[in-house]
Known about the structure:
The protein has 486 residues and is an alpha/beta fold. The protein folds into three domains: 3-57, no CATH class; 80-341, Aspartate Aminotransferase, domain 2 (3-Layer(aba) Sandwich); 346-473, Aspartate Aminotransferase, domain 1 (Alpha-Beta Complex), CATH 3.90.1150.10. 35% of the residues lie in helices and 11% in strands. It is built from 15 helices and twelve strands. It has helices at residues 45-57, 79-85, 88-91, 103-120, 132-149, 167-174, 192-198, 221-230, 251-254, 263-266, 329-365, 395-404, 432-451, 453-457, 470-475; strands spanning 124-126, 157-161, 178-182, 203-209, 234-239, 258-261, 281-283, 295-300, 309-313, 381-384, 411-412, 421-424. The protein has a seven-stranded mixed β-sheet, with helices on both faces. It has a three-stranded antiparallel β-sheet with strand order 10-12-11, covered by helices on one side. Strand 4, helix 8 (221-230) and strand 5 form a beta-alpha-beta unit. Helix 2 (79-85) packs antiparallel against helix 11. The two termini are 27 Å apart. Bound molecules: pyridoxal-5'-phosphate (PLP). Pyridoxal-5'-phosphate (PLP) binds next to helix 5. Residues 71-72, 131-133, 165, 167, 209, 213, 238, 240, 262, 277, 279 line the site of pyridoxal-5'-phosphate.
Amino acid sequence: MTEQTIYELSQPGRKGFAFPEPDVPSTPLPQEFERESVRLPELSELDVIRHFTNLSHLNHSVDGGFYPLGSCTMKYNPKINEAVARLPGLANTHPLQPIVSVQGNLYLMYQLQEWLQEISGFDKVCLTPAAGAQGELVGALIIKKYHQDNNDPKRVKILIPDSAHGTNPATSSMSGFDVVPLPSDARGNVDLEALKTHCDDTLAGLMLTNPNTLGLFDEHVEQVVQLVHSAGGLVYGDGANLNALLGIIRPGDVGFDIMHFNLHKTFSTPHGGGGPGSGPVGVTQALADYLPGPIVTIIEDGDEENPPFYGFYTPEKTIGRMKAFYGHFGMLVRAYTYIAMHGPEGLRDIGEKAVLNANYLMKKVSEDYYLPYDRTCMHEFVVEGAWKDIPGVHALDIAKRLMDYGFHPPTNYFPLVVHEALMIEPTETESKQTLDAFAAAMKAIAKEAREDPEMLNKAPYTTPLRRCDEVKAARDLVFCCWVPEE
Ligand SMILES: *Cc1c(COP(=O)(O)O)cnc(C)c1O
């Protein structure tokens, strides 16, 4: 790997392009575009390709190795998704084209809406939200409008379990609700007694992630939903962990009123590095009128000879638009392809294998690490990344040391309810060999912690950058560390 920047590699006169002879008269650039001060690097095509390829290899990626980041579902993105998303008829369309010229795109979106409805048990799905967090905002705003329309403005309280993802309280309070945290019981479920004390006429709703971020299926989910409903509240499902339920349980059937999907987690559209994601929202019939638009619909039914004609509509009492145009269309194409490739049986297989892989790995890892909730997990599990008798070693040290073994660290210090949490999600796409290799690395690190704890404090040793000051890195962003010499 070269340590030089692309500017330092530059050689005067070198170039990486070859334009054909112009077949039109040349015109000088407008004066305002001619700037002596812009110093562009001069490189050959090969210089540029090598430079960026080498840079890309400095990052860990799902294509490069195991990526057990819990609560994020970094699963393999099948390459066929990319091939389909690049088909000219899909990739080269413009959102301002007349709908008659993009009927294929609309068909794809309509079909995806239908499939997501079938998979989740909801009556209506809107595809536009940009990510899970934006889906949550949609949900919170719908809950708000629903109670307003019922002349019930005193419902100001949203309940959120203490194991929840930070976006849940963030979007609820952005929508003007008071966030009330709910404790978990000893088995990692919502504490029913605590829930009951909040079920009054100020309750707007509950946000529930199921399975939750401990990787546990709430054993009383039906009771939780029923308690909230009988107090007049709505139940929002955070669908980030839908992977574990695919083809087995439908949140709509359990009584959830609203839920977001994270297409970039469950349906294998790529994420990491800032997205884009996609967070469609499903609702029951009673709330369908509040969804953001545009939603794809059939404007004219088809028959045996002619396909239906598709168009858009915006529901009557909509909370408003959430996103420019139609959301992240490229992500919708990838999710469509993924679902089409797997079919119903394949989706169920994903759910079963995600759970099987996580339980297999949990058994192996818990030989050396404390498992605070010792019961069958769903698609992920949480262990403590610390030992009482080795005070100098923390979850962060274990996470960093895993990089030396060639693995991406698991999520650490989340969920907050577990001391020194390491949250591990293997996903269904990993083989037994990969899971065994990861378990062996975790075992080796546990041994290192006993024999040489101080060594772990300085890990990683083999990465291009060693232990970074993460707080400084986040607060004090430096985007460009190279400045040209005058
Ligand atoms: C990822 C995640 C979210 C947020 O979703 P984004 O698509 O990242 O905005 C919310 N809740 C849980 C449990 C998650 O894992």
